[in-house]
Amino acid sequence: MRKILRLIRKDLLVEFRERRSLFIVLSFAISTTLSSAIASAGTSLGAWERAILLWIIILFAGIIGLAHSFTREEERGTSLFLRLSSPPAFVFFSKLIFNICFFAVLEAVIVSAFVFFHEGDVPSPFIFITIILGGGFALSSGATVLSAIAAKSAMRGALFAVISFPVLLPVLIAAIRATALCFERHDISAASEMIFFLAFSGALISISYLIFPHIWNNE
Q1: pTM score, two decimals?
Q2: Which helix (H) or strand (E) holds 110?
Q3: Distances in Å between the alpha carbon of 166 and those of 38, 40, 130, 160?
Q4: Domain range list for the chain
C-alpha cells in the first residue's frame, strides 16, 4: 500500500508541476458549459436535455483529462523506470486511484459551473451527487486501462478517443438516465442506477487487473 501511495504522490507532483493539462481540461469544461448556457439563453431545458448536455461535457472533458494518464509516462520516457521499479499491479492501482480522484475534482468543477450557469434546480442534492460520483467512478475505471492501451500507439490521443467511446457508452447512457430521473424527482429509480455503476466498475477493474500486465510489459 505504501508503494501505491508513493506512485500516486509522484503523479500528483507531476500534475502540479505541469499544470498545463489540468488548466486545459478545466478551461474546456468551463468554457463549454458557459457556451452552452449562452446558446440556450431564454430556452427552458427539460430534465433529459439538461442531463444529456451535462454528461456530454463531463465525458469529453474526462477523455481529454484521462488520456495522458499513461501517455505522459511514454512521452517522458519514465515507463521503463516504472516497469523496473514497480510490479504492474501497483502501477495499475496507483493510476486507477489517481484517475478516480482527478475525475472527481473535474466533475466538481463542471457540475458547479453547470448548475450556476444554467440556473438548474437539483431536487435531491445527495442523490444527484451520488449519481455524478458513481458515473465518474465507472468512467474513470474504464478509462484507466484504455489509456494504457492507447499509450502504446503512435496516435495516442486519437486512439484513446476512438476506443473509449464504445466501452464507456453504456455508462454514459445509464448516467444520463439516472440524472434525468433525478431532475424529474424520481429519486428511487435514479438511485437504482448505482447498482449498474458498481457492477460495471467491478467487472471492468477485475478484467483490467488481469490483462494489465500483458499490456504494460508489451513494447
Answers
A1: 0.86
A2: helix 88-118
A3: 30, 29, 24, 11
A4: 2-216
